[in-house]
Input
Amino acid sequence: MSVGDLLGRATRKFTRPGDSVLASVRAAWPEATGPGTVNHAYPIRRSRAGVVTVACSDAVWAHEMDARAEQLEARLADILEDPSAVSGLRFVVADHALPAAEPEAAPRAPLPPPDPAALARAADATRDVEDPEVRELLTRAAARALERDAES
Output
């Protein structure tokens, strides 16, 4: 018996049938439904028969998703390359089961210009770079690195 067989036997009792399929459905969900839908409709479980239950933020989303159920099933089958992965979709209002929306990152303030001495040393190191845009980027990056080295 191989190590893989032993590990499979050991972990099989800790997983439920369909867990890996549900994970695949969840991964394919944004592509199948479109970008922002995850905040309003998200697969939460899959029955042994292959019916995926989708938690929706409210009745309007549940109704809208139910109207698109056949299309979504077909898209999921295409994305997962497995027509038997999802045998049906069931939409329920369960806003408590939706994943928390990721907070939007606050815009970062622009960095102050590099120290003129560090910039001069960096420009000297990058003078042989032919492309002016690449040379400017490398010069600024090198100047920041030189500033960090001077601080430590």
Observations:
- Residues 15-97 form a domain with the GMP Synthetase; Chain A, domain 3 fold (CATH 3.30.300.180).
- The chain has two domains: 15-97, 116-151.
- The chain has six helices and three strands.
- Confidence is low (pLDDT under 50) at residues 1-18.
